[in-house]
Amino acid sequence: MEFIIAVLTLIVLLGMLDMEIYKMFTVGDYFASMDTYLHNILTIVVGLEFVRMLIDMTPANTLEVLIVAIARQVILTHNDPLSNLASIICIAGLFATRRYLISKKALKLELSEVE
Description:
Elements: H1 2-26, H2 34-55, H3 59-76, H4 81-101, H5 104-114
């Protein structure tokens, strides 16, 4: 079931990417609104990470999706400094979780599967 959801999500993301590429060449002031461009591209990136997580459910993949999603939030929303600080602390906590709570053997196995 997860694989089917991953494939459907990938199809939708590829359609979004195709639309973004089309807009870049047809809309005259497309790059005038950099926020819109970043929002769309980073949404696609988070979606691709989500698809990867659905295909290979490992703790490291889940943490990577969370890191990318929080980083996207920091980049796109220019909230108050406390919100940005909380997001950065969350990212640091996720990196620490990955470093200290996931065994090195599991990480090496996951890295060898990627290569």
